[in-house]
């Protein structure tokens, strides 16, 4: 759904349900739609990304409707978009592509299967980190801005060339807003989206928010921990973004191996508390005082 001001200005896009079962994003977008968010200048586009997957939602198997053929959030590299391959999600990505290619600012709403404190995730571009910091600097919103170097398995929406081009202008940011299917996750998504719309022009023109009422925490992913065996288990049911103070703390066991934190103040990012063999179990992140520049 597109809301046009009729005047030149930033092209602002909010996406939800890129993963079909994350319907908190659908609720948040519906709340926004009802308020008809016509901007003073520019354009706002709200996108429900994977309704075909959601159509198959079944309460008894809620994870089965994350996607239909493949993960829509791994397809955004030109090598996939321009390929001859066909899938339900590739078709949808190609449909949405014109809206993404013209976006100056993108907010992509997500939720998690396991408990995690909300956080922003940005690709390794300073302009996107600035966007997330602008969102995170309002009291009551998530304070952690995490930069990573991509996800194994393919490019996410926030890594589309529009946002990755060196010297480009498109800014993108992903919000992990909390647990799937929890009402408060919708509230977090809505608050962040409203902040995003309110500060869009400031961020677009200056890279900073006008109103800042809380400090932001920056972190960078340093390690992906994959379950090497079927016996992988965490020593505690860690909540996402937990900070482990001491290096060398055992956080999980994998067969005969103990998985330890490699440095002090190590953040555990969105742990998957029951990873299958070969799956990503947790990502480790280090606090940093400066942006990862590029
Ligand atoms: Zn998701």
What is the fold's blueprint, element by element?
Layout (H helix, E strand, L loop, with lengths): L1 E3 L6 E6 L7 H11 L8 E6 L2 H4 L23 H4 L6 H14 L3 E8 L6 E4 L3 H11 L7 E4 L13 H4 L6 E9 L3 H24 L10 E10 L6 E2 L7 E3 L5 E5 L2 E4 L5 E4 L10 E9 L6
Parallel strand pairs: 2-3, 2-4, 4-7, 5-6, 6-8
Antiparallel strand pairs: 1-3, 5-7, 8-14, 9-11, 10-13, 11-12, 13-14
Walk me through the structure:
The chain is of the alpha/beta class and 294 residues long. The chain folds into 2 domains: 2-206, Zn peptidases (Aminopeptidase), CATH 3.40.630; 220-288, OB fold (Dihydrolipoamide Acetyltransferase, E2P), CATH 2.40.50. Helices cover 24% and strands 26% of the residues. It has an 11-stranded mixed β-sheet with strand order 1-3-2-4-7-5-6-8-14-13-10. The longest helix is centred in the middle third of the chain and has 24 residues, at 183-206. The radius of gyration is 19 Å and the shape is globular. The two termini are 33 Å apart. The structure holds zinc ion. The site of zinc ion has 3 residues, from loops. This is Aspartoacylase. Keywords: Hydrolase, Metal-binding, Zinc. GO terms for molecular function: hydrolase activity, acting on ester bonds; metal ion binding. It holds the Pfam family AstE_AspA_cat. Its cofactor is Zn(2+).
